[in-house]
Amino acid sequence: MLLLIPGPVQTRPETRAAAAQDIAPWDMDFRPVYAGIRETVRQIAGGIEGEHATLPLQGCGHFVMEAAIRTFVPAGGKVLIPHNGAYADRAVRLAGEAGRRVVALPGPDTRPVTAEEVAAALAADPAISHVAMIHNETGSGIVNDPELIGPAVRAAGRRLILDSVSAFGALPISLAAHPEIDALVFTSGKCLEGLPGMGFAVARIESVTAAAGNAGSWSFDLSDIYQHALRAGWGSIRFTPAVQALAAFRVALDLHDAEGGQPARLARYRENARVLHEGVRGLGLTPYLPWEAQGPVIVTVHQPADPNFALQPFVDALKRRGVLISNFWNTQAPTFRIGCIGAVTPEDMRTAVAAIDAALRELGVRRREAAL
Ligand SMILES: *Cc1c(COP(=O)(O)O)cnc(C)c1O
After folding, report:
1. Most buried residue, 120, 234, 250, 302, by most Cβ within 10 Å?
2. End-to-end Cα, the chain, rounded Å
C-alpha cells in the first residue's frame, strides 16, 4: 500500500525494522542512542551548541506544541497566532485551553501570512509577548515563511514559537540565524520519516532557563525536561518514552543524512508535489492552490463538481488500487488531500495520478473541475 497522507508517513523497511526489539530506555546501551538523536536533531535545526537544546517529549505534535506554549508564553500572557489554516485553528484552541490569551490574525488558507500583517498586529498590541506560527500549514499546503516573519518578530522585540511539525527536515531553517525563536517544534513521524510517537522542541537555552515555573504542568514542561538533562545527563529520559519509535528514529535520521539531508529531501518532496499538481490538472481536476502558493508537503484538490463524487467511496476506490489518502479534509472549501512526504518518490506520484483517474472513472465522475 502506498501511504500518501501527511503523517504518519510511509517509512523505509530499515526504519520499521529497528522498532522490532525490546529496549530498556535507561539501559547503558540506549543512553548514547538517545543523546545522539538530540545532538543530530540540534544540528539539523542549525542550533548552536551551548545555546540550543533538544527537548524531546513523548507523544504527538499537539503535545509538544502545548508544552512549548505553556513553557514560553507566561500564564495569562498573550500570543499572536497567524490564523490561516486548520493547524492554526488547533493552535488557537490549544493556547486558549492552556490559559494563554490568543490574538488570532485572520487570513485565507490559500496564501501565507505576510511580514506586514504580523508587524502591524504586534505594533497594535504591546502585551503580546510571542508569535506562534504554523510553518507548513498541513490543512491546505501553504508555507508561512520564517525567513520573512522571523525578522518582523525580531524587529518588534517579541519571540517566536514555530510549529514546524510538517516542515522540519524538508523546509530549511537555521536557529543560529533566528535568535527570535524560543522553540522549533516537530515530531518523529513526518518529514524525518520516522515512526510516530515522539515530539521534539529545539529550544533556546536562555529562554528555557528563564521559563522555569511557567508551564503549570509537570508533564508538559520543557524547562523541567531541560533541568532533568542537566541533572541526569542527555541520555536520560524523565518518563517512559516511545522507545521503539526512538530506535527507529535513529535509523531515519541516518537515512536523512545519507539522502543528502534537508536540501535533498526538499528536492524530492518538491518534485513529488510538482508531479501531483501537474498530474491532477492533467486529469481535469482543480488544485486548491495555484502552483505559486503550493508547498512541498501536501497537495489539496477541490472535490469534483460531479454529483457522483463522494469522498469516502473515492478513498475506498483508491485504496483498492493500492493508494491510501486521508478520508477527511480541512480546507475552507471541500477538497481531498494527498501527502507528498515520506519514503515516496515522483514515480509513486505518477502511480497515484493514474489511480485517481481510474477511481474517478469507476465512480462515474465526469465533471472533474471544482464547483466554484
Ligand atoms: C501533524 C501536525 C501537528 C501535530 O499533529 P499530531 O496529530 O498531534 O501529531 C501539528 N502541526 C502541524 C502543522 C502538523 O502538520
Report:
1. 302
2. 33
